[in-house]
Write the structure tokens for this entry.
Amino acid sequence: MRLVFLGAPGVGKGTQADRVTAQFGWPKISTGDLLREAVRNQTALGIEAKKSMDAGKLVPDSVVIGMVRDTLAAPSCQKGFVLDGFPRTVPQAEELQAILTGRNLKLDQVINFRVSRHDVVTRLSGRRSCPKCQSVFHIAFAPPKIEGQCDRCGASLIQRSDDKPETIEARLKVYDEQTAPLIAYYQAKNLLSDLDGSGEMAAVYTRLSALLLGLGAQ
Ligand code: AMP
């Protein structure tokens, strides 16, 4: 299946996309992960993108669209994929449609994760990430076995620079202004399914996999 996971930062799209990949095999394509990798590798693109990311703003459409176009061309994406964090603007959505149409493909569904604003802020501000293996923890909901240390590789956990309170506020404002219009955009195309993203990760996944199986996923 070709899926888009839509929702504000912190709704759990990335975590749930990992689970979908594990169960159904469609790779996750996270533009945030691709950009963070470019930042770590200090590529020209990464150095430029970091300024927008640290300010909680969007990286220019042309940059992310180029990354997604290249990734979608990979053989691993031919049977399906889960886009996490893309598209985030109407021009990105239009470009995605053009890329897929050019390959005689179409999106199967857009899953709109719904979580209260209060819960989103709690999830983002408590999130801790491993700078080495990219595992993600939460100080209250998914704490590491040893405080401050990654369970998987032992590296010291960090708080993403864009998970600091001032930046969280900026990111949510950007979501409201630039990304939320995609809900109506995909609704009009009859592609949108709402998903209650509140509560524990496992409970959310039970709802999500039931939804996907109902849509014919296998
Ligand atoms: P995420 O991990 O999806 O929350 O993304 C982290 C940051 O990467 C965002 O706050 C943006 O600065 C940038 N970013 C990720 N995806 C996109 C996108 N589709 N368009 C523009 N900027 C993006």
